[in-house]
Amino acid sequence: MYAKISPFKSFRKSFLSSQAIRTLALSIAITSSCVVARQIATRPTLTPDHGQSVPSDPGKATVGHLEVTPASVATSVPAANYILGSDDQVMLSVTDLPEAQATMRVDQQGDLNVPLAGRVHAAGLTVNQLEAEIEKKLTEFVWKPHAMITILDLRSQPVSFLGEIGSPGIHQLAGHKTLVEMISSAGGLRQDAGSTIRITREIKWGRIPLPNAKDDATGQYSVASVPTKNVGETSDPATNIILMPDDVIYVSKADLVYVIGSVKRPGGFVLGQDETISATKAMALAFGLDKGAAGGHARITRTEPGSSTHTEIPIDIKKLLAGKIQDVQLKSNDILFVPSSTAKTILTRTAETGIQVGTSLAIYHF
User: Fold this and answer.
1) Beta-carbon count within 10 A of 183 CB
2) Quick one: which of 223, 240, 222 has its CA closest to 231?
3) What is the mean pLDDT of residues 310-336?
4) Based on the domain organization, do 227 and 312 belong to the same domain?
5) What is the pLDDT of residue 151?
6) Could you tell me the residue range of the domain that residue 234 belongs to?
7) For residue 147, which of 134, 166, 163 has the smallest C-alpha distance?
8) pLDDT over 80 at 321, yes or no
């Protein structure tokens, strides 16, 4: 009743069925590989010849031959009126001419070595002027080239800041910057900033446009000063001058006056941006007379600038504080000494001794 099937025939059918499946799977795999290969072949590729490279850090973008973070690219230096000079670094890109893309630094002769265009003089030009010069030289490679320059690093217009400034050292001008703007970029004035700011400029940039400007002994520099108050409060725009490359800005250290002897808080008091302080204010900063003070026998010891001699000025502090006599202005390094009623012989001390005592006291700001 049942047909007998030969074992050989059964094995042969099974083998053929398996072989058919394998053939079908192989065909599908080959077809898929061809499709993938075709897609890869149609993708655009960037090669080092086009000024591109693969960044070593996935978090960085590649601009020309320079790896930078995306934030650095977004915050490129503004180039409105900036005059290029030696050591400035720029990035060049040219529409439809990727071979010209490069990151370059202006050499000591003021030139850039531009791909395809050769040497182009950049020092003394604005960005727009440099772009126009490069475009002229690239016309033989592309019709109406459009060059774009981005400033990456400024090093050609240094201004030196010394003295009581937040961040002393060399800071770069970026275009036309005023004294106030550059002081702000250098960290502002310190608490111990004095009453004057001295500016020194090379004559090749012209004399400083301030009434008190004078040439130094060599005739190579123009020197002028600006009251610190004018800069801090910008109350006088005439003193907020435009700075030039290689200017040196020195912020003086604040001078002191000393109140010593029979007062409640003896010490040195910083004048800050003021050149003088009244004796009344000095006594207020010293918290007034101490118990047993001989205020009627006080003295001001003064040393004139450039002199080693001292002058003693008598002052009646009791009458001063009572408003019975005119106030007296204390100058830099003046020492106001109030003796004790039980030790009036201390007035016989030399001025030098008074100075030594004064300079060893605590220093107070107000």
Assistant:
1) 25
2) 240
3) 93
4) no
5) 87
6) 158-253
7) 134
8) yes
